Amino acid sequence: MLHVRLAPGPAPRNLSRRWDSSAYLHSWCSVPCPSRLSLSRTYSIKSSSIGSATGLCLGQCCRIKPLSCKCKLGRSSQPPPDSRQHFSASSSASEAVLTAQSDIRKLFVANEKIGVLLLNLGGPETLDDVQPFLFNLFADPDIIRLPRVFRFLQKPLAQFISVARAPKSKEGYASIGGGSPLRQITDAQGEALMEALCGKDIPAKVYVGMRYWHPFTEEAIEQIKKDGITKLVVLPLYPQFSISTSGSSLRLLESIFSCNVREDEYLVNMQHTVIPSWYQREGYIKAMTTLIEKELLKFPKPQKVMIFFSAHGVPLAYVEEAGDPYKAEMEECVDLIMEELEKRGMANPCTLAYQSRVGPVEWLKPYTDETIIALGQRGVKSLLAVPISFVSEHIETLEEIDVEYKELALQSGIKHWGRVPALGCEPTFISDLADAVIESLPYVGAMAVSNLEARQSLVPLGSVEELLAVYDSKRDMLPPPVIVWEWGWTKSAETWNGRAAMLAVLALLVLEVTTGQGLLHQWGVLPPLP
Ligand SMILES: C=CC1=C(C)c2cc3[nH]c(cc4nc(cc5[nH]c(cc1n2)c(C)c5CCC(=O)O)C(CCC(=O)O)=C4C)c(C)c3C=C
Ligand SMILES: [Fe+2]
Description:
The protein is α/β, with parallel strands linked by helices. The chain has 3 domains: 112-277 and 426-472, 3-Layer(aba) Sandwich (Rossmann fold); 280-422, Rossmann fold; 489-521. Helices cover 43% and strands 10% of the residues. It contains 18 helices and 10 strands. Helix 3 (130-138) packs across helix 4 and helix 9 packs antiparallel against helix 14 (427-440). The structure holds the ligand C=CC1=C(C)c2cc3[nH]c(cc4nc(cc5[nH]c(cc1n2)c(C)c5CCC(=O)O)C(CCC(=O)O)=C4C)c(C)c3C=C and fe (ii) ion. GO terms for molecular function: ferrochelatase activity.
């Protein structure tokens, strides 16, 4: 097992706004929200008992280039101090921790090679990439959660759904220039983060590891090993934690770590820590608020504008059955931004809704499209859309919000429409990410002394395994993540199962196409027979 340490986060907050998924608008209340586990800590990945994954081609597919930093820092011959003593028991937390951190960070980085691994979703770079990208996405058991007994269906189902969905997705990607801008933007964020770290006297290399497209997380890890990184901070680029995003990426990482234990000891010995979510960080909240403020001022009557937060949805069962903290974190995030806006003298009304649902199951509500229509009917005339679950422009901002929802809003009687840009490389935001990395450094590789310390400390201890278990009660029932889809005649039994299942799915498809009856017709993927 690898080192386990959680870094401190702000104390849990009592928020004054109550969100109700059946209502479109927030209401004010004096009842504090139920407390929940604060995720503003860092965790580390342990080589767990997750089964080995198949078909990984780390060496060959490694095309990743680390973003490089030109800054130089004097090397100290002193050994790094024991960060635990400086950071474990203080109760007024953040400020004291920060001061101590700036005192020791130069010593701490001495003789270390620090790496930051940015985790992100990835997106197809060309239209030809769309179907295989979708395959990787739907083959992820954190995206389509089949019970373990049906695990053999995961890949055939992914193949089937990706082929069925590809034409619609391709249209979307074609309309935003023929591919996703995600890789470019994430690389730029990595560069900016590295410069910001440099400016704060932390020379570090930043790596990008995508979940479903290049550069894959496996490639990033290969490069990290080649570069001999000794301390790694893992930073998912999703402000709020969801099983389906950060959770999935961390689960994959965990399986890479456990998979590689047998081959080399590098990953076992590499000290690391994970920042699972960071939506409540001051810099992020302030950067978002500033962007909103700027856009509000473009409206003829800024004070009359409804601020419309639109988050990517997740299936309702993730939150209600598995325990995904996504919704709670999203609501808290919106509350924090609204509080900051109020501090700046703006008292606009706001709404939170969820977009981009896929498939036949119920997703988090209210849905963005229905909410826009309802707001129009209620006489709202000015709407400012704020994409809240992601920090880069992507297909769902550039196409879904800017085109589809804008059109819907105008049709629904909204007269003035605006959209807040994604954060991208906004300097306050990047600087805050750099601070998050720096604040987590003392916890890289720090070990728990005892369970008692874990329970009493403001810096509780845990592992990604525990984190995922806390937020995902169904996790044990899921198969390990699919790393790479292998076509062809391999010897593994899984492939045989897959082939058999694929034949079955194919037979179902033929039946469905010929009879006009079945799930795909119900879901609207196939049109009804004439
Ligand atoms: C916080 C962000 C995201 C969550 C939560 C999320 C969950 C989720 N997504 C799908 C299905 C699809 N997502 C797709 C694209 C996509 N998703 C996110 C972010 C979250 N997804 C981003 C940033 C992107 C875009 C990447 C890009 O190329 O620009 C797609 C592909 C696009 C399409 O065909 O619509 C699918 C499909 C599910 C099922 C899910 C939760 C279970
Ligand atoms: Fe998505």
